[in-house]
Write a structure and sequence with these properties.
This protein has 221 residues and is mainly α. The protein has one domain (3-29, 48-220). The protein has 8 helices and no strands. The protein has helices at 3-28, 52-68, 74-94, 99-120, 123-145, 153-169, 171-194, 207-220. Helix 3 runs antiparallel to helix 4 (99-120) and helix 5 runs antiparallel to helix 6 (153-169). The protein is globular. The relative contact order is 0.12.
Length: 221
Amino acid sequence: MSAAALVPVALLGAVVGVVVPRIAVRFAAAPTRPRPWRPSTRPRPWRASTWLGPLLAAGVFVGLAAALGADPALPVFLAVAAVGLVLAGVDLACLRLPDPLVGAAGVLALGGLTGAALLAGTPGRLVDAFAGAAVAGVAHLLLALLPGSRLGFGDVKLAAVLGLPLGWLGRDALLAGLLLPHLLHGAVVLGLLAARRVRRDTLLPLGPALLAGAWLAVLLA
């Protein structure tokens, strides 16, 4: 995709970045069951600065557009990314991945990829997408069931949803999308422990790492 064609994508991402923090704060403030957090620390609503949110969203959108080019599923990836930015904000604020948001991402991915496969005459890619969702969901479910696992079922559902677009891109993208989130999350945890910002029993959100890892997998694929 040419540089000129990326400009409207960047502008669209910037607009999304303006809206995302406001939606994330609303979901983060919604009543929910108490969740364990660091001692003497309460979750705070996540708020991006006036420039960071649009800049981040624009970068996410441009990266996807540059990587996917003329792929008919590009609008689907952008839509899922927009919902993913909201999910990342909510998870950072209160360690929660709301089912309505995860479900919305799943509906967008499923419906959009089905339409893209039919329009492009490539039903095999839709089969790959379903296989990707199954593999990602089962893999994270097994991780969540391990003794002492801190993986929540919200993370499992999000992983399955992200498996749809990753499976659409093929095996390499799916494998990268399975491994990169945990490498990123591990690096962040080690960094925070070294800086003494968290303790070993501190619960940290995995959702942002799942989303960032999936985005990087698309770029690498």
